[in-house]
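[agent] plan:
  1. take the single chain provided in the ticket
  2. run structure prediction with default settings
  3. attach structure tokens to the ticket
  4. add a short note for the reviewer (M.T.)
[agent] executing step 1
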Amino acid sequence: MASFKLDVVTAEKVVYSEDVDMVIAPGALGELGILPHHTPLMTTLLPGELRIKKGENELILAISGGFLEVRPTRVIVLADAAERAEEIDVTRAEAARKRAQERLAQHAPAVDEEVARAALARAAARLKVAEKIKRRKRLV
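[agent] step 2 finished; step 3 output follows
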């Protein structure tokens, strides 16, 4: 089966760099499935799960938005932040979600609602990925 090189990078580090069979990303207009020989494209990404398929294995990363570029033999994800499920601190993510929800509930002029909504989306993405992996482990 054909594959392509996937690089997932943040400002701090290369999070993932391997040949893969498929990537499913949270695009601005919905989920994007990228297979080998995909048409070149560049798009923004929303906070969510980046699913990476390689053979029978699937790796899920929580990303907090960024950009995706598809080249003829390579896909690059430039993420604001990216974490493997096992790296997610669930307690910290829960606290971030609670803080964002409280800020949104205040409706105070000093609260930047767009920033609070973005923080809520990032926390929700991290928690969703962590929960999905936890469920998979219970099934094994």
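[agent] step 4 note for reviewer: The helical segments are 90-106, 113-139.
[agent] ticket updated
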